[in-house]
Amino acid sequence: QWLQGFDVDRFVDAVGNVPGDWIRDQIRLFASATWPERSLRIWFDLLLHLWDREYLKRQELLNQWLNDLLPFPGEAYRQFIKEFVQANKLIERELFIGGRLIDPSLITCPVLVLAHTEDLLAPPDSARALVDLVTSTDREFFEVSGGNGGHIDIVVGSEGPTVTWPKVSAWLQARSG
């Protein structure tokens, strides 16, 4: 809803490639405005873990990654915002890439969809919608809850090494023959 009125054409025409730090700052602004207690919890968690070297190193690496984002190609950003976010064309089965209709119902291979309980950009219900669209008989939705970073925490959060990695490994192993 936040991006429904966003004039992405005017924006991309003005900036060209979208700076990575602009995207990062917009996400932080959005998160702070829509979920202020989460921002407070991030600082509180930091205070609780000041003596935990592993936690601090993980936070340092995450912040290093977030502060070193590459620019997003302008035309790809324009297409993403207009077609995926504003028009929801993937779900509506109206998305064309390279002249071909992208229809999730044609996906018949095994599908594992991962989501994070506190993801503001791709909330679990949005991720779960993909599972409902594919026609694969082997489809699974898996939700992770640890951390405060949203979908990046699926992999690098507190549950990444202990929950996500073993889950994905076992899922792949069971289907690799």
What does this structure look like?
The chain has about 180 residues and is mainly alpha-helical. It contains nine helices and four strands, in the order ααααααβββαβαα. The strands form two sheets. The chain has a two-stranded antiparallel sheet with strand order 1-2. The protein has a two-stranded parallel sheet with strand order 3-4. Strand 3 (about 110-115), helix 7 and strand 4 (about 140-145) form a beta-alpha-beta unit. It is globular. The model has no long low-confidence stretch (mean pLDDT about 90).
Fraction of helical residues: 40-55%
Query: What is the molecular shape?
Result: globular
DSSP summary, beta strand count = 4
Strand content: 5-15%
CA-based gyration radius = 18 Å
- In terms of per-residue confidence, which ranges show pLDDT below 50 for 5 or more consecutive residues? none
Topology order in helix (H) and strand (E) letters: HHHHHHEEEHEHH
